[in-house]
Each structure stands twice: as structure tokens, then as C-alpha cells.
Amino acid sequence: MINRSFLVTLLIGLFLAAIIHIGILLFAPRLSVSDAWEAVALPLEPFVAFPVRPMRPGEVFNDPDEAENATITEVLMRDLDPQFSHTICRFDLNSGPVHIQTDGFEGFWTLNLFSVGGISFFSTNEQVNAGRPPNILVTTPAQVTSLRANNSASLNNLTLVETDIVDAAVLFRAYRQHQEALPTTMAKLQSVFYCSPFQQNSGQEQEEPEAPELVVPATEAITDETPVLDPDAFLSDEPDLEAEPVSQ
Amino acid sequence: MSSLSRISVAMGLAVVIGLGSTDFFLRAKAPIGTTKHQIWTAWPSTGLGSNANAENPYLQAHTARNGTVPLGVNEGVLLKTYRDASGDTLVRNCLYQITGDIPTAQLWTLAVSDSLGRVLPNPTQRFGIESNQLLRAPDGKFDIWLSRDVQPGNWVSLGDLPEDPYTANETVPVDGRSQNQSFLLTLRLYGANLSSETSLSAVAFPTVEKVSCP
What we know:
By secondary structure, chain A is of the alpha+beta class. Chain A has one domain (36-234). Chain A has six helices and ten strands. The relative contact order of chain A is 0.15. In chain B, 21% of the residues lie in helices and 23% in strands. Chain B has helices spanning 3-27, 57-66, 176-179, 197-201, and strands spanning 35-37, 40-43, 76-81, 95-99, 107-113, 128-130, 144-147, 154-157, 184-190, 207-212. Chain B has four helices and ten strands; from the N terminus they run H-E-E-H-E-E-E-E-E-E-H-E-H-E. Chain B folds into two domains: 1-30; 33-212, Jelly Rolls.
């Protein structure tokens, strides 16, 4: 009898152990404080691109305090390809769709949208994108419906990503073609990568399709295909992404 | 056995086995969901829109615990090895030769790091080699040499600098783990059409042979 009751105790113990095991596994992505979302993306200011670099010996991974203090310089992240430069940008869709684009970037790239737990919900690369730089609009289904109803022309040339995930981040991985020093390419990448609230055309400009690919330095932007453009828009070396790239 | 002691034994077992087994799986170098291809362990991309394996709770929990953002379905495939062809742990003071094939990809990189994925500071400021940089023989074959000392041809440093220019202005504490002489090889195949286990099993991967150790 002792053996039998001991066996029952064992079985109950194992059963509870299995519940604990499964419970932790299922909740780990939500409860973890050391995942890429909680420790790296969340402390960052939204809609600002931060350079991310792989770690060196002795450095601590995913210290939220470190990420918070890394406002200007760099964010540390685990498991990054040292042959690539990376940049990360947190965004939320509460105030509208988010536009992800580069300005004058060339070379091989891949891009990953992720959220809680570091779990990806969209990814793409240069090849999938037909050799073009990324030009992505992340929206909720409701937002895209209203965009289409009001101004479908503004969605031309954009890769639409519809998601119910409101808080997310984008990790942009760019191949370091010329083997420049990492700090140089990181700084460069940060200055050409944008994730910002989508600027919608309004009023009379509705008919004018927005062409975000044109938001590049003047010397490269003027081609035969370029539609009628305001020359003033190209006077500055630093294109202002807040401004409409095409104005009439 | 009183019912109180039975309850305590059951609860104790549940906590020890439950927590212990979860921890074991989350620390595993090749968690459930990864697949083995010769010496390489392939990590499927986790997340929505990928193959069934990607929804694997072990992989998702492993990702969350380790603070990574794995390559997404459309980014590429990641393979790791901690061992050479004869099954020995890769050690930084030996000389290794990598030969064979690397699956077709838009771009691949082979990176050297400590076992936690941290780059190994070295004078070349390069932490691996990639498809664009690879020198090949006229017949298309290649050798990649891994060692601390400079080698002709395709060479990746396993070295350490007494003074790392990268960290020249910082005090870098050296913890016990980075003193460890083992290293990790990571092969990333970008834009490779290899998202399923079947397609991974059908291709050949490079071999890593130990040539000499001091």
C-alpha cells in the first residue's frame, strides 16, 4: 500500500511538473524581461532609429538600463551578424500607420518586424523586394481601409503590412559591403533609415501619388522618369522627411 | 505516509522537475525545433507566416529567454556549430580548415564568436568571412582557415588582442565565460530558399576539420 500511494504521489508530482513546464514555455515570450522586445526595443524612444551592434567579450546582453542609456550611441543586441550593420526602431500604430523606408541606401539588406518575445511577424529582403530599398507601410486593418477609402493613390509603391500588433519594432540588417569599420557604417545606416508616422497627402494633393523613393539627395533623384518637381525641394542636402517630397 | 507529506513530496517534485526541465530546454544549444545537418544545427525562423515548426513554443521561449531576434522567414537561415567534423569542441588556439560546399544563397556570412555569440576582438577588425570576399580556386573550390595566427588565403582570426582598438577607451571586464577558449561558428544564408527541413536535408554543408593544435 505504501508503494502504491508513493506511486500516486509521484504521478501527481510529475503531472504538476508538466503543467509548470508547459505554463512557463507558453508564457515565456510574454513574461520574459530579457527578450529583445522588453530589453532592447521597449526602452528606446519610438520612431527614432538606433544603431545596434553585436557584443564584445565581457559585455552584458540585454541590460534594460543599458539600452535606456544608449539613447544616442548604440544599443547592444545578441546574436547579430558581425558582417552586417543593424539599426532598430520602435513604433506603435496607435496614432496611425508607420512608414519604414531608407534614403539613399544601397546594398543587400533584410528587415524584420518583431514584437513581444522577439517574435517576428513580417520579414523581407532585397531580393524579395525586387532589388529595391524597403518602402513599407505598417498598418492595422482598420487604418488601411480608411487609407484606401480616402486616398488610395498614396499607397502606390508601398509594401503594405497589415497587423493587429500595435506595439512593435523593426530590425534592419544591412550588409557592410566595403568592410568599413563598424562604427562608421552604423552611424551611416542610422542616418539613412527612417521609421516614422505615415505622412498622408491631404486636401487638393490627394490626386498626387506620393513617391517616397524620390526622397533621396538631389543628385540621384532627378531622372527622366521624375515627375514635375518643385526645384526648391532639392536645394537642401538633408532631405526633410517630414515635408512632402512632391509638391505642387 | 501522511497526506501532508505526500502533498509536499508531490509539490516538491513538481517544482524541481517542472522548473529544472524547462530551464534545461531553454538553455539547450540545440533546442527542440532545430534540426541537425552534419555538424550544423539549423535554426528555423520563428514567428508568424513561417512554416509549422516556427510556431514551436520551445523555439519561441528560447528566443525570448535569449533576447534574440532570429532571422525571419524571408531573411534567411541560420546554422551553428560548436564542434568540428570529429565531434570535438572548437577551440581558439587550434588551426581549422573549412572546405566543401556552402548552399546557394543571395549572400552568406560565416561568423566566429565566443559561445554566447560575442565577437572576438582581433587586429583585422573582421569577425568572419562572406560570399563576396571568398577567394576560390579555378575549379571553384575553396578553403577557409581559422586560427589565431595569420594564414594565407581565406583567413578568419580566432585571435584576441591584448589591446582591442574597439574598446581602447573602455574598461571591459572579462568575465569567466569569455575567457573560455571555445568558439562558435555561425553560418547565415541570406535569401536562401531553405526554409523547410526537407530542403535543408537536400543540400551539402561545409566541413570543419581540425588541422593542428599547439
